Amino acid sequence: DAGITQSPRHKVTETGTPVTLRCHQTENHRYMYWYRQDPGHGLRLIHYSYGVKDTDKGEVSDGYSVSRSKTEDFLLTLESATSSQTSVYFCAITKTYLNTGELFFGEGSRLTVL
Amino acid sequence: KNEVEQSPQNLTAQEGEFITINCSYSVGISALHWLQQHPGGGIVSLFMLSSGKKKHGRLIATINIQEKHSSLHITASHPRDSAVYICAASAQDSNYQLIWGAGTKLIIKP
């Protein structure tokens, strides 16, 4: 199994509070992704990173920011959580581009915003 | 219309049956991924393929680029195969984005 760890695995928070989810990998893979999974929507890309300090927006990036100061860590921050951000968040990594690289996922972080 | 369509949406079969899940896409792709998600669980990559056929144990994935179609087959199905199977296309015009199918929920009854 690819070494990907997400933390926390479960979190309940209140509207308006900041939340940071962490994705840690031990594979030294260059590319990292944050997805959210909601019923009826499947997986949607929030942000991705193609290297240290190199990040870009995905299709549902509003309300989220990311940072990658080290190869192994990719942080997803909700500056002011809203109920619409209640979801399961998955981190994923690939060694190369998605057209040639197998995708490895973390176990997911379930976030509930009350 | 979604750019990646899976069928069927739901499939219930008896243990031992041969299973086929289909994925059709309307965009140019450079690769197609098949993934598995167990209830309440994580997501596991099964295959990534850009042509031909790949086999891993009882799982076989095929892709026909000309017809823009891929299939995932499970031979001698088992209740532990019960999961959601998802196909996702790596579009030719993007190295970072995948276009996701809605998933096929498979239940194998003993």
Give the uncertain stretches of chain A in residue-range form: none
Taken as a percent bin, the fraction of beta residues of chain A is over 45%
Helix segment tally of chain A: 0
Q: What share of the residues of chain B lie within helices?
A: under 10%
* Morphology call of chain A: globular
Number of helices of chain B: 0
- End-to-end span of chain A in angstroms? 34 Å
**Overall SS class of chain A:** mainly beta
**Largest sheet of chain A at a glance?**
7 strands, mixed
Output the radius of gyration of chain A: 13 Å
Mean pLDDT of chain A: 93
Question: Which series of helices and strands of chain A comes N to C?
Answer: EEEEEEEEEEE
Mean pLDDT of chain B: 92
What is the count of β-strands of chain A?
11
Would you kindly provide a brief summary of this structure?
The complex is a heterodimer of chains A (114) and B (110). Chain A has strands at 4-7, 10-13, 19-25, 31-38, 42-51, 54-57, 64-70, 73-78, 87-94, 104-105, 109-113.
Walk me through this protein's architecture.
The complex is a heterodimer of chains A (114) and B (110). Chain A is 0% helix and 57% strand. With 114 residues, chain A is mostly beta strands. In chain A, a hairpin with a 2-residue loop joins strand 7 and strand 8 (73-78). The radius of gyration of chain A is 13 Å and the shape is globular. By secondary structure, chain B is an all-beta fold. Chain B is built from no helices and eleven strands. Chain B is globular and about 45 Å long. The model of chain B has no long low-confidence stretch (mean pLDDT 92). The interface between A and B is medium-sized, with 25 and 24 residues.
